[in-house]
Write a structure and sequence with these properties.
Largest sheet: 5 strands, antiparallel
Number of helices: 23
Radius of gyration: 32 Å
Structural class: alpha+beta
Number of strands: 12
Helix content: 55-70%
Strand order of the largest sheet: 1-12-9-6-7
Length: about 650
């Protein structure tokens, strides 16, 4: 049956293509693009063939509008396949042509696709900016279907921002427009599902997702069908129906792999992993996780994001730079015309007339040149002034951030304070930017027992630093103001204080922190630990080792799999563990920045396994030497790559 459908589709395409042969080049190019659009959802690879044929014809016949539309068609296919860099390059080229032609509808299509691309790069701000530009241009072009499509995407943005009522309102406005049935029906239904899913009305969400799958199948929208199936899997997982969830995720995976759609396969795998973990099917969950990470590394790595950002930044020339470039070209053109005029005057006139014309020409030329030179000098000074203004503003911002570093440093405990509590310790602290989201904290309980924490707040740079100040203050309040002594209870109180601090207005903030909090009971040689997402490592001599050449052994205190500052869902109390301490053991507290650093010969992550092996090798050394070796290993691994996150590693010898 499937082969019969493919044959019919091929036959229909061939008939349409044959009918184009008697038309003009512009009509043939338009016809090819129409065929590419009609069969795109059912057969994207065949659609690409017609798109490239239209592109070749348009370029050969110098058909600018059709050439730009063929670039849009090509970029849509590349975006589907997850090949973001060439997709962005082609969209930028098409947008430039549409701007020159003042073609609002075509430019709107470029902006709509760029909005989707920016969403893939997790650039929420530019995703929304391009979408709003597309909507404005669709309104100017009086393109109802384009406006409907952009409204669907706007509803999706509202869902992702957590504004579900606005999303439902936007979708109901679309229903009221009474548009003819078409492919937008899928997107309307899937966005209704997302809005109800966000409101935790999972039964309604499942109904709309089921309708979205039916619409996708009706119009042979393969990628959309996979998206609907994935959403159904997520919804049934929330409805505690693991059997149905796994069924829908596997259907989505089968379709994605069959059509080589990496983005959709990654989304389906991510949902399937959660269900398998919940059902304790760890072997299958591990295999799915390996495939998921492979896809994510392929789709979006650091070098790819940098490359895409460089393309986008090169596109954003200032208006003054454009004006100066245009005037420079005009000056060259006028100079060429003047030179040509002078040559014709010499040929057409005799001796005396040539001399008079030359004098007049020279006078006018010098006058015009002086005027143009003055204009260029004036504009050059204006550009230099603007440059100085930007540099001044930039310096002011950097000075402010640098000063913020002093404030954050003042929040961290001094070496003198730490020395009075821990005679043997080291702290490797490497912020990615001037200020950091990682911080360390030392305090004593009301009974005088030492407390030590290594914390990793959401993000890095200025946003991370702001969260770290709130989190640090919450830790201190929990101990000093509320007189708490138990690490688990302290983290519970910090979670409560963070929620209180970040819920004072309507804007939803989901920032929090991971970390390890330890309390040292030296009288009983015990350590009480509570941890959020990050573990605690203890390295000491192996109990089975001989007196000579004793092996070192690493034990791990596992954390609770939840952050401090978890919003929107019920959080469980943090579990507190009591560990017996032995003299000579070394405790290691750390954030994820060290293990997550990219580098080495293949540009991969350092990872926790390699980090543990390194610490086992150096645990017997003095702590100052351990710090040096950890720092040297990190820098050698990083090489010329940028540091990806804040780095914090603390070592304390018992």
């Amino acid at each position: 049956m499937h082969s019969m459908k493919s044959y019919c589709l091929f036959l229909l395409s061939a008939i349409l293509a044959f009918s184009l042969s008697a038309q003009s080049p512009a009509e043939r190019a338009d016809g090819l693009l129409k065929i590419a659009t009609e069969i795109y959802n059912a057969a994207p690879d065949s659609s690409m063939t017609y798109c490239l044929e239209a592109k070749s014809l348009s370029k050969k016949e110098n058909l600018e509008e059709q050439y730009a539309y063929s670039l849009v068609c090509e970029s849509r296919y590349l975006l589907l396949k997850g090949d973001l860099k060439p997709a962005l390059e082609k969209l930028n080229e098409a947008a430039g042509i549409f701007e020159k032609l003042k073609h609002n509808k075509g430019l709107a299509k470029c902006y709509a696709l760029k909005s989707i691309l920016m969403g893939r790069l997790l650039n929420d701000k530019e995703e929304l900016e391009y979408l709003l530009k597309a909507r404005e241009l669709y309104i100017l072009a009086k393109d109802t279907l384009g406006l409907a499509a952009s409204s669907v995407n706007l509803a999706l943005d509202y869902c992702e921002a957590g504004n579900y009522e606005k999303a439902l309102s936007t979708l109901n406005e679309l229903i009221a427009m009474q548009l003819p049935n078409g492919k937008n029906d899928f997107f309307i239904q899937v966005n209704f599902g997302m809005a109800y899913f966000g409101k935790k009305d999972f039964s309604k969400a499942a109904l709309h997702y089921q309708k979205s799958v039916e619409e996708a199948r009706k119009y042979k929208m393969v990628d959309s069908e996979i998206t609907g199936l994935t959403h159904l899997g997520e919804t049934f997982f929330r409805l505690k129906n693991s059997t149905e969830a796994i069924k829908y995720f596997n259907e989505a995976l089968l379709l994605a792999r069959k059509n080589k759609l990496m983005v959709e396969e990654a989304d389906a795998l991510e949902g399937l992993i959660s269900v398998l973990e919940e059902n304790k099917n760890y072997p299958e969950a591990f295999n799915a996780l390996k495939r998921f990470r492979l896809l994510k590394d392929s789709l979006l790595n650091i070098e790819k994001i940098k490359s895409l950002n460089e393309i986008e930044n090169k596109l954003k020339l200032t208006e003054k730079e454009k004006i100066i470039a245009e005037q420079g070209l005009a000056l060259e053109k006028e100079n060429a015309e003047l030179a040509s005029s002078k040559f014709r005057g010499i040929i057409l006139t005799g001796g005396v007339i040539v001399l008079i014309a030359a004098v007049v020409f020279l006078f006018l030329y010098l006058k015009r040149t002086r005027n143009l030179y003055s204009l260029i000098q004036f504009q050059k000074k204006e550009v230099e002034f603007q440059k100085e203004l930007v540099e001044t503003k930039n310096k002011e911002v950097m000075d402010s951030i640098s000063y913020a570093r002093y404030i954050q440093d003042g929040m961290l405990p001094s070496d003198k304070t730490i020395n009075t509590i821990f005679p043997e310790y080291f702290i490797l602290y490497k912020p990615k930017d001037i200020v950091a989201g990682d911080f360390y904290w030392v305090e004593r309980t009301a009974e005088g027992k030492p407390l030590l924490a290594a914390c990793d707040c959401t993000g890095h740079g200025v946003p991370g630093a702001m969260v770290s100040i709130v989190a640090c203050n919450a830790l201190t309040r929990a101990v000093k103001e509320f007189k708490l002594t138990s690490p688990g209870v302290i983290l519970d109180k910090v979670n409560e204080l963070l929620q209180e601090a970040f819920s004072k207005n309507d804007y939803e903030i989901k920032d929090g922190m991971d970390g390890v909090l330890c309390m040292f009971d030296k009288n009983n040689s015990e350590l009480r630990v509570a941890a959020a997402n990050n573990p605690l490592w203890i390295i000491g001599p192996s109990l089975s080792g001989m007196e000579e050449n004793t092996q070192m052994e690493l034990s791990q205190v596992m954390p609770d799999k939840q952050p401090v500052g978890k919003f929107g869902e019920e959080i469980m109390p943090f579990e507190e563990k009591t560990i017996a301490l032995n003299k000579g053991e070394v405790l290691y507290l750390f954030s994820d920045g060290y293990a997550d650093q990219f580098g080495g010969p293949k540009g991969k992550k350092f990872k926790y396994k390699q980090m543990a092996e390194l610490m086992l090798q150096i645990a017997h050394l003095p702590l100052t030497e351990q710090k040096e070796k950890l720092n040297t290993a990190f820098e050698n691994w990083r090489g010329k790559l940028d540091q990806v996150d804040d780095v914090l590693v603390i070592g304390v010898r018992i």
